[in-house]
Amino acid sequence: MRQLFILSITVLILLLSCNNKSDQKRLFDTVLISNPKQKASCVRFASDENNNPVISWCETDQAERKFFYLCFFENGRLGMPVSIPIEQNAAIHEEGMPKVAIKSDGTIIAVYETVSPTPENGWAGFIHYIQSFDKGKNWTKPLCIHADTSGGKSRSFADITRLSNGEIGASWLDVSLDSKKNGRTVKFAKTNGRSGFGNERLVDSFACECCRTAISSNNEKISIVFRDIVSDSLRDISVSTSLDNGDTFSKADSFSNDDWIVNGCPHNGPSVVNDKENVCAAWFTGSKKKGVYYCELNHNREVVFKKLINPNGKNIQLCLAPDGSKVLAYNEIRLEAGSFYSMIVVNKIEGEKVLEANITSPDAHAGYPVVYAMKKGNIAVAWTEADKVFYCLLNTDDISNTTQQSAVIPVAFENKLQHAKLDGDKHTICQEKSSGTH
After folding, report:
1. Is the CA virtual torsion 418, 419, 420, 422 positive or negative?
2. I need a surface site. Which of 208, 229, 242, 262 has the fewest CB within 10 A?
3. What is the side-by-side order of every strand in the sheet holding 353-358?
4. Domain-located, residue 263
């Protein structure tokens, strides 16, 4: 079965390579990585213990059986897929997709949501994780990331990353502290050797209930970014940081100043990376200031640079290139002759200059891109299109077109708005260990 799967992919890659000469929908050499006979989604990059990229994705066959795969890059090329045994009640959706992270000792951690609805809570479920200590040949039994394992409660939208000590840290949305309100708590936990996740912390008490969290680690600094409920239904982006590898977290500071008031589910969360000095974040807003944005915050979590990247963009992801430049990938929505299209765009930020490259043509129907900075200036981009998962490689030098957007937001004005919103904020510093009960 596996040989047939690999053969099918190989044949399709060869066909795509031939078609690329005449098919301008894909502007770079494109590789199909999913099974062409199954529906695929939820593509994501991570890094192995040697900081080489790995790529994961999900598939569903005609019988609605769910599969989760991981591929290591070997000498710059994808190796054979590793099958990860997720449960069949796992949730397969882009905002809360199954994910993998790899410890510095090579241990693979797979994290995924499970759906366990009750009559009282149709959104109830758990966040499970499994571990492999032998490159995916064998896996442990599923356990919960969260301390409270009782049923009937909503837990979802997790993100994971490798910490400075080689362990794995996770952020997620946990249960609400007030059943009369829609907001949910933001939690953090980290692994400890083979014993798995523990040391749960409460990061924020009242966040948007339906957008993914994002986590990044650099040295002992951890940044967690999420869509916050600042007041009533005002849903801006906030950040909370830890300077001691997740033992304590700062109060969450709202910094996006979108003024997006929505009493519903945006279902479009942020992305974050830490560089040597700043927290770098990217996100989508559907407010009057609609579009995808990029922002940098200093060690005091004050805005030092903010830019509207594209007013028609959605689902933005961010990575840090080895030369220090930031690379963004998103899908740009276009309306032409009464039809909607969605193409994949990659941007590179160098100081206040933004350059771009189109990965697909303007008449594509592609979405949910992810981006990873490789060695020697190479960038890997992956996305979903026509229920299949593709990826391509390009060099940072290929991202060279000047963008038409030039909306740099004055930093002084941003900080004035930021501090004004923080007056009377509902956040508190949460440094104690969470009890895990609600």
Report:
1. positive
2. 262
3. 313-320, 326-336, 339-350, 353-358, 401-402
4. yes
Q: Pairing state of beta strands 313-320 and 237-242? A: unpaired
CATH number of the domain residue 213 falls in = 2.120.10.10
The domain in which residue 135 lies consists of 85-311+410-431
Pairwise CA distance, residues 235 & 258, whole Å: 8
| Residue showing tokens 């479920």 | 125
Is 267 a domain residue? Answer: yes
**Cβ atoms of 239 and 65 closer than 8 Å:** no
Long-range CB contacts for residues 62-71, cutoff 8 Å, separation at least 24: 62/38, 66/90, 66/92, 67/38, 68/98, 68/110, 68/112, 70/100, 70/108, 70/110, 70/136, 71/33
Q: What is the pLDDT of residues 23-66, one digit of tens each?
A: 435 678 899 999 999 999 999 999 999 999 999 999 999 999 99
- pLDDT (tens digit per residue) in 341-386: 999 999 999 888 899 999 999 999 999 999 999 988 899 999 999 9
- Residues 327, 325: Cα–Cα separation, whole Å: 7
Q: Which residues, including other chains, have CB under 8 Å from residue 417's CB and lie 6 or more apart?
A: 257
Helix (H, G, I), strand (E, B) or coil at 143: strand
Token readout for 432 is: 């104690």
* Pairing mode of beta strands 221-227, 253-254: unpaired
